[in-house]
Write a structure and sequence with these properties.
alpha/beta, two-stranded antiparallel sheet, 7 helices, DUF1177 domain-containing protein
């Protein structure tokens, strides 16, 4: 049910001339959906940040009280031109985010609007640089992680799914999708039982999860190893963040082409849409609030992990 939107997003984004405005045009048939594009230039080029807002029937935008949900497509770039021709593996997060927004927008026109608002954000760069990383090279970004978080993490988001290609490692050896534990304010919390339930329903298979470390939830630029940028939104917000990894059995470089699998991206989209339905409807929790209060009472704040270290600003 989400393959149509995934193919539409792939068709537009697998193009050396694509930009934010061309992605925005995908939503011209949905007048209830708001789409904004901001071109940002960094030291290594420029990229177009795109923000898509799908209002809910009882969302904050209409004066209601239903929760606001966030979906972030996390990546360095959708292409590495001119060194590599075509869509790179790293593009999956952006494709999934845009396809999720398309599916939610289409649902509205068919009478299936969600209760709460959904904010989807990502960025579109067909000519991003690459950088060395073990065991395989990563895609880099024209802008730094602080800038990405400023444009992609909206203060209105009350919970966030961060979708990212996570194939350039030897930690995950499953083809499809996997979810991370919940990260909140520097704490790695237990994996959400609601998200496990929704994942098993959406995939028809046992839920697959992946491990993360303390290093992974610290900001980029501190000379620590990160599995990738999937949990970077967590350094810029106090709301719960869960990574949705598009995964592979073999090690695939983020800058590799011909490595985006439509079915796997569509699975990430389907899972994200189902979570959006339940979170905005009040039937899905990312973490146990009472347990989180208890861990803070026992061990104090871990917000220092959202910074670059002592006396460094938050990402």
């Amino acid at each position: 049910m989400t393959l149509k939107q995934t193919l539409m997003a792939l068709d537009v984004m697998d193009d050396g001339f694509v930009n934010g405005e061309r992605v925005k045009a995908l939503f011209k048939g949905y007048p209830g959906v708001s789409v904004t594009v901001a071109k940002v230039t960094g030291e290594k080029g420029s990229t177009d940040f795109i923000k898509i807002v799908i209002p809910g029937t009882n969302g904050k935008l209409k004066g209601g009280d239903a929760p606001t949900f966030g979906i972030i497509g996390r990546l360095g770039g959708i292409g590495a031109r001119p060194s590599r021709i075509g869509l790179v593996s790293d593009a999956d997060g952006a494709v999934a985010a845009v396809a999720s927004a398309l599916k939610l927008a289409d649902m509205q026109t068919k009478g299936d609007a969600l209760k709460g608002d959904v904010i989807v954000s990502t960025h579109i760069c067909p000519d991003a640089p690459t950088r060395p990383h073990e065991p395989v090279d990563f895609m880099d970004s024209p802008v730094n992680i602080l800038t990405m978080n400023q444009h992609e993490v909206a203060p209105e988001m009350e919970a966030i799914l961060s979708i990212d290609t996570t194939k350039g490692n030897r930690v995950i050896n499953h083809k499809g999708i996997a979810i991370s534990p919940t990260v909140k304010e520097g704490y790695i919390l237990r994996i959400s039982e609601d998200l496990v339930r929704i994942m098993e329903m959406a995939t028809g298979q046992f839920a697959v999860t992946f491990p993360i470390t303390m290093q992974d939830i610290t900001p980029y630029g501190n000379d620590l190893y990160h599995i990738n940028s999937i949990l970077q939104p967590s350094v810029a917000t106090d709301v719960p963040v869960v990574g949705v990894a598009v995964t592979a059995q073999a090690v695939v470089p983020g800058c590799g082409t011909g490595a985006s699998h439509e079915i796997d991206i569509a699975t990430a989209v389907r899972f994200s849409v189902e979570v959006a339905k339940e979170f905005t409807g009040g039937t899905c929790q990312f973490y146990d609030k009472h347990e989180f209060d208890r861990i803070i009472q026992l061990y104090g704040s871990m917000k220092i992990l959202q910074t670059g270290g002592e006396n460094e600003p938050r990402g």
